[in-house]
Amino acid sequence: MHLTIPESYDPKLSIIDTQKAIRYIRETFQDEFGKELNLSRLSAPMFVEKSTGLNDNLNGVEKPVSFDMKDMPDQTIEIVHSLAKWKRVALKRYGFGMHEGLYTNMNAIRKDEDLDNIHSIYVDQWDWEKIISKDERNIDTLKSTVRDIFKVIKHMEHEVWYKFPEAVYHLPDEIHFVTTQELEDRFPDMTPKERENAITKELGCVFLMQIGGKMKSGKRHDGRAPDYDDWKLNGDILFWYEPLQMALEISSMGIRVSEESMKAQLKDANAEDRLKLPYHQMLEKGELPYTIGGGIGQSRLCMLLLGKAHVGEVQASVWPQDMIDKCYENHIQIL
């Protein structure tokens, strides 16, 4: 557990007004986001069968919360880590067309998360996915989509300022694009997290690209599951967050793997055994559409727009008692 206490922190809003702001941000953002990217809202599962291969493996070391059920005793049911693979199958099943997509309200439990100001075992995000052509699997499509998302976030800043002017946290006017290799070249003696902080503090908002594969040093900037994002066409949206003096990740997203890139990345990750799973077989046979997608943290976005010091101020979760006590001592209002 790690906790950062901002100096002379003032939450600005009462707990009740914070709750009103949370509702406003969540309801307004999803409508604006859906319109901007041509996405329809769908219902989504909170758990999936392990045997389908649909669950997100994250970095490959986190264990999903799992259980069995009376009417399916031979199946292990897992609470989702994210819906990265499920969405791509859903686009095919529901008959979405070219440049159409979906978003959904995704709730997950990541029990192995290290708790701090921005990490909780409870994950709430808008998971989204959109069909593109194979020819659009390129950096221009990725950057254009990132700029569209940034535009909606900036629009939300103005909307929140109109409703809660005393509380809004002001955002930079532009997003910059940087690769993990460029960061390693520029800051060779820093850790990946230190590099993220350095470049985001300098530029304000960054889309950090190409996460998952090995860099020239032979190291990876960060782990990424090998079977949904194409490691050459993905990235994270990071904002410099002054209250905590750190880069705050709002979204992880990317163009999804093709048949070829999935095989190459599974081999690189020593995970070729997954090719036997139903999802991977569908993709290998060309039965799934080419897509771009990702997740946008709901609580993270509320935290960013309202200038909050702890994600527990904008979501109800479970925290160690000593963290709760220290937060209350410093005017951090854990829900």
From TrEMBL:
Q: Indicate the principal place this protein occupies in or around the cell.
A: cytoplasm
Q: What class of enzyme is it?
A: ligase
Q: Which residues form the Aminoacyl-transfer RNA synthetases class-II family profile domain?
A: 23-320
Q: Does the keyword Repeat apply?
A: no
Reaction(s) the record says it catalyses: L-aspartate + NH4(+) + ATP = L-asparagine + AMP + diphosphate + H(+)
What's any GO biological process attached to this entry? L-asparagine biosynthetic process
A GO CC annotation recorded here is: cytosol
Q: Annotated pathway, please?
A: Amino-acid biosynthesis; L-asparagine biosynthesis; L-asparagine from L-aspartate (ammonia route): step 1/1
Q: Which UniProt keywords apply?
A: Amino-acid biosynthesis, Asparagine biosynthesis, ATP-binding, Cytoplasm, Ligase, Nucleotide-binding
Q: InterPro entries from the xrefs?
A: aa-tRNA-synth_II, aa-tRNA-synth_II/BPL/LPL, AsnA
Report the EC code(s) recorded for this entry: 6.3.1.1
Query: What Pfam family is a match for this entry?
Result: AsnA
Its annotated compartments are: Cytoplasm
Q: Does the keyword Cytoplasm apply?
A: yes
Record-level Gene Ontology MF annotations: aspartate-ammonia ligase activity; ATP binding; catalytic activity, acting on a protein; transferase activity
- Show the SUPFAM superfamilies listed in the entry: Class II aaRS and biotin synthetases (SSF55681)
Q: Which family does it belong to?
A: Belongs to the class-II aminoacyl-tRNA synthetase family. AsnA subfamily.
PANTHER family per record: ASPARTATE--AMMONIA LIGASE
Q: What is this protein called?
A: Aspartate--ammonia ligase
